[in-house]
Amino acid sequence: MLPSPAEVGRAFVSELPILMEHTAVTVQEALYGLLIGIVFAFAVAVLMDAVPFIKAALYPVLVISQTIPTIAIAPLLVLWMGFDMTPKITLVVLTTFFPIAVSLLDGFQSADKDEINLLRSMGAGRFQIFRYIKLPGAGEQFFSGLKVSASYAVVGAVISEWLGGFEGLGVYMTRVKQAYAFDKMFAVIILISLLSLVLMAVVALLKKITMPYLDK
Amino acid sequence: MEKLVAAGISVVYDGEKIIEDVSLTLNEGELVSLLGVSGSGKTTVFNVLSGLLKPDEGKVLIDGRDITGKPGDISYMLQKDMLLRHLTVIDNVSLPLVLKGMGKKEAREKARSYLPDFGLEGTENKYPKELSGGMRQRCALLRTYLTGADVALLDEPFSALDTLTKASVHRWYMDIMERIKLSTVFVTHDIDEAVLLSDRVYILSGKPGRITEEIKIDIPKPRDPLSDEFIRYKREIIAKIV
What we know:
heterodimer, A: mainly alpha, MetI-like fold, 9 helices, 0% strand, elongated, B: alpha/beta, Rossmann fold, 2 domains, 6-stranded mixed β-sheet, 4-stranded antiparallel β-sheet
């Protein structure tokens, strides 16, 4: 039942072409989902920061939405949206959105009051204060949220593929599981971990590039 | 000539009067200190003068123009240098120009020409974390200056510096003030600093805070903090502040 590392390695090599095809699909879903998640998170965080009423109304809803298990909504999404990429991307958006939105909001709201006053005294408007204080100040929090979300993104895409679809690593996984091909199963698990790691490394690199003024 | 006038300022916060009937004037080219113990309402006066806080009573005039509750005419600086860490020195100091709508390139150009005067040559592409404490303060002062206001409000700007750095920054500040025709209100609890730098000293004390004394410091500058006169002024102030 438990394949040796050599067997897993061999399976990985022999299955590589197929795995790559499925990887392309899964990575696409993860990236699209993550990007859309970032855009939504950004919009919601900006709104909640700017209008206290929206924050009060929306924040609890967001928190509660996070208690709904992903695995329970995935089949529903498939039923509603079909077997193509849309339900998968939607699920990734749902899982990646929250960590980014919350960390961004925290970042915006922890802006230094004295710095904001200083810019006001220089005649800065709301947008300028956002541009020069709040946005750059939230950079670190944003990237910690993004790191968490990046690791969710690949896993989220795979889970949604389990529950309906024709391509992707999740589909491959269900197939090899049904064939009791444990060596291939382990090969794909390792591949998924690697993908998450690569994505997180990319996030770390982005942080370094966009925020060169940080200490290590 | 009167540059800045505060007349009859009172501030109530949470039903409690913080400062009452505070009036002071700053003449052109003068350095005036507002001296008070902690809790006397110095920061409140500071916030009213800078326009960040609208007083419940009283007015703030600059060149005879009413600026009560309107920030933007007086530049100010706190103990924290508040340099934005994500901007380089040149972008930090040119920020007030950019905020007023000047193009980035032009703003940098203008700011660059002041770097030597402020002892900041060669640092323009550095980030604030790479500067020493004294340099950061000078950088913040240049930014203050480039806001274009000819009145500066400083709230214990040098109190985080070590004694030797402080002495050199003091000398340098007096010099630069003269050169760029700046009038300064200096908020401090440091009596030595007040006597060393000020033309006049206002003492803020009591609860709610009131101006209880105005003392003219009649010693030619630069002053020797060990001279008899200097110590006499210090004694006088200490006697009046407690």
